[in-house]
Amino acid sequence: ACGSTSVCRAPGAGLRRGANLGPLALRLLAALGMVPADPSRPIPDHVATQIFLVLLLVLFFLWFRRRLSAENPGALQLCFEQVLSNSFRVGVYDLLEDPRRKPALWVAMRQGGLGALDPGGWIQIDTRKGGPLNRIQAMAHSGPPGKEIAWFGSEQGVLHWEAGAWVHDAPGKGFPTTLVNTLLESRAFGEPRLVAGTIKGLAVKEPGGWTLVKETGPFRGLQVMTLLEREENGAPALWVGREGGLARFQRGQWTNYTTRNGLPNGWIYALAAGLDHYGQQTLWVGTRGGGVARFQ
Questions:
Q1: What predicted TM-score, i.e. pTM, was given to this entire model?
Q2: Is 203 exposed, middle or buried (0-12, 13-18, 19+ CB in 10 A)?
Q3: In terms of CB atoms within 10 Å, which end of the chain has fewer, N or C?
Q4: CA dist 20 to 14, 24, 280, Å?
Q5: Rounded-to-integer distance, Cα 226 and Cα 124, Å
Q6: pLDDT number for residue 132
Q7: Cα-to-chain-centroid distance, residue 11
Q8: What is the Cβ-side half-sphere exposure of residue 139, based on CA atoms within 13 angstroms?
Q9: Are residues 71 and 77 in contact, defined by beta-carbon separation less than 8 angstroms?
Q10: What is the SS3 string spanning the chain?
């Protein structure tokens, strides 16, 4: 309350008076040929408040920019990326084509389970109905020719359809971890095996169940984002793109590549085998923030 000898000030009056900049604001307006309605308050309160908020936003983004990292993004950066990329909408994570059987095309969706293209058109398979979850991240076929089974990687292990029901290898119940980013059938471990790139490394489907691959070097236990296998010097080589760099598994040995070996960025999101502009065999490497590199 204001007494007889006190000076009454509205909340925030000091802030607004400071933002008005007094004589400096008057000179600036005069130079622009503008005459304020109230010379004692040349900048209105609402304008001063907006200027203050803009300055706060500029300071925040300058602070935030110094903490951006393509190799080691923080929680706040990941949150902004989710919002700005609009990934909370229904999106497609993977495609799996098989023209020999029905459906001819599987579509893995972030929300909504699986989409499938059969002779009658598009259908949606809600894996929550009779299935364990509804977010599919990766897909692959595995099994003898003509008897392949479609496998689906999710945020809670892997699943496949067998004998009219979903079979779910869940974390703690047959699967060693949770999030599956990619699936691939590989011959690098001897007999063809289904390999899962997970949040905790590589998992392999053995006759007795799933096991995490015991790796050595700097990538042990780090997240796997993408997989590719190709023949090199008469033996299958499994290339693993992951958090931290690129790894190759061949003849029981691991070889690791990081930014110290020339990679432009340590997060590997995509791999492709092909020819370069000289017609030579090469491995194309897509990174999170460093563009495309090639390995020869």
A1: 0.67
A2: buried
A3: N
A4: 10, 8, 67
A5: 26
A6: 52
A7: 45
A8: 24
A9: no
A10: CCCCCCCCCCCCHHHHHHHHCHHHHHHHHHHCCCCCCCCCCCCCHHHHHHHHHHHHHHHHHHHHHCCCCCCCCCHHHHHHHHHHCCCCCCCEEEEEECCCCCCCEEEEECCCCEEEEECCEEEEECCCCCCCCCCEEEEEEECCCCCCEEEEEECCEEEEEECCEEEEEEECEEECCCCEEEEEEECCCCCCEEEEEECCEEEEEECCEEEECCCCCCCCCCCEEEEEEEEECCEEEEEEEEECEEEEEECCEEEEECHHHCCCCCEEEEEEEEECCCCCEEEEEEECCCCEEEEC
> pLDDT digits over 156-211, tens only?
899 988 877 888 898 888 898 889 999 999 999 999 999 999 999 999 999 889 99
Rg of the chain on CA atoms, in Å: 29
Give the separation between CA 207 and CA 80, rounded to whole angstroms. 42
| pLDDT surpasses 60 at 89 | no
Residue 243 · residue 223 · CB < 8 Å: yes
Q: What is the pLDDT of residues 57-77, one digit of tens each?
A: 999 888 877 777 655 566 666
Neighbouring CB atoms inside 10 A of 74's CB total 12
Give the torsion sign (CA, 149, 152, 157, 160): negative
**Lowest model confidence (mean pLDDT) among 49-53, 123-127, 148-152:** 123-127
Q: Which two tokens stand for residue 173?
A: 């119940």
Using DSSP's 3-state secondary structure scheme, residue 204 falls into strand
